[in-house]
Design a protein that fits this description.
By secondary structure, the protein is α+β, with helices and mostly antiparallel strands. It is built from nine helices and ten strands. The strands form three sheets. Strands 1-8-3-10-2 form a five-stranded antiparallel β-sheet. A hairpin with a 5-residue loop joins strand 5 and strand 6. Helix 2 packs antiparallel against helix 3. The longest helix is centred in the N-terminal third of the chain and has 14 residues. Bound molecules: fe (ii) ion. Fe (ii) ion (FE2) binds next to loops.
Amino acid sequence: MQNDLNENEKIRLYEDGYVIIKNAIDPHAIAAAKSLIASLLPKDERQLLVPGKLATDARITGLFNDSCVKRILQTVMGPFPPVISCQVAVTPPFNQLGGTPGTHVDGGWSGELPEHAAGIDAATGRPFDAERYFGNNDERRGTNDGLLWMDPERTLSYGGYTTLVGVALNDQLEPGNGQFAVLKGLHEEVEACFQEQRDRGNIVGPEGYQWPRIKIDKKGRPYNNGLPDRIRKLAEERAATGTATKSWPWPELTPINLRAGDAIIALHSLPHTATPNLGPNPRMNIYFRVRRLREGNPNEGTRRVAHGVSDHPDRGYFGQFLEYPEDYNPWRTTIDNLCNHWCEWDGMQDLVASRTNS
Ligand SMILES: [Fe+2]
């Protein structure tokens, strides 16, 4: 069984920000997980709400823990705390998901917004009447696991981890079947945006330099902005020069076409999105968010972080502020790593060095 990426796969990860591992998961485990999920889904096919308990079921987390992907990451990335949870992501068939993909980098607040925007500061994207948007204070946990700030001092407004692993439980080989999709190769640009924010000494993440937290769409509706302005502009340029097709009207996005049992390993900084599932079958993917072990962090491995699902592991999964010793600053470490994402990939160092020096 594979336990490392070969050279070509490392090049793909480096250049594209992701690599696909074909036949990564045992077919029996895929079939068992698929039927387990199907048996627990509500019978009304319009609402495929996945029961929360599935996220920590060993038959689901085992798709990662008992597979070659875990060993590949241990080699190419390094050690990491146990993966105890995951995201079970089912998109119903014939589902438009709003019709438009919401491309983003993981780690931001994505809570409910009012239907019509009012009083948004254009530079920071922060509402003048913040309570109307965020609740009675900024620390209220948002929906979709997002939090507004990672630290009490409010210098970091984004969570970070190392890699997103996606496992397909059904075939998604033809575009238009709810594929995971990415802004291929833009991970380095995202890193550069974080660097620029850090170097200006202001907030890193939304509300920081050129990253409004809330933006207004063409119809005047507010939306959570999961992309720095520069990345959104690059995506728009790609969209303008690419070729749209009937089944894939988003030329800026690369569909990740997977067969059941295939896995994708993507950098945290690679912008991504779900897409509408116009096909006849539920799109079933399992996502694992894995962060390389941080030596010196006493909270590594605590269940409160929910490693494997959380996109904000410097805080508890439900927003608790964790205790850290005086000599360890988790938020500084996260900012350093967002600004130098390859530092968390032990097995990529030779390739990174050769590309940086050439
Ligand atoms: Fe995401």
